[in-house]
Amino acid sequence: MISAKMEKIMNEQINKEMYSAYFYLSMAADLREKYLDGFAHFFEHQAQEEMEHAMKFYSYINEQGGRVKLDAIEKPQATYKDVEEIFDLSLKHEKFVTKSINDIYALAAKENDFASMQMLDWFVKEQVEEEGNMDKALHMVKMAAKAPHALMMLDAQFGKRE
Ligand code: MG
User: Fold this and answer.
1) CA 46 to centroid of ligand 1, rounded, Å
2) Going by fewer Cβ within 10 Å, which terminus of the chain is more open, N or C?
3) What pTM value is reported for the model?
4) How many whole angstroms from 16 Cα to the centroid of ligand 1?
5) Sorting pLDDT into bands at 50, 70 and 90, what band is 161?
6) CB within 8 A of 126, min separation 6: which ones?
């Protein structure tokens, strides 16, 4: 069983993961409009992963006898200046999510809630990967921004994400 505090903070995390999905899908839609289909594919995939993250918390709260309570999802930014801005915002967003996961972990540790700590271990690892991927992508996009054909090549490469 999880505490009332843990239930509340995990419900907030469901909202953050859902918002992440919304945010990345909004970026994908903007990229589709610009015919940058490879980058759009990358962010559509990313959005799907965020939905899965939300569902992991959803299932865990239920398993632990808690109650899932859904809140309104904030409206994401609709248009973006360029691909660099998109990856820059994505990296910042992943850092925000990492901090949020760490806060939940800190609460679990404080409460001696070992089951939640174990569940959160997956997310701690996942965030290292997410930040790393976005950081690398941002660097590549920054380099490619100097030559349009390089950006098109990157777009094709990002379209191969499975
Ligand atoms: Mg996530």
Assistant:
1) 9
2) C
3) 0.94
4) 8
5) confident
6) 53
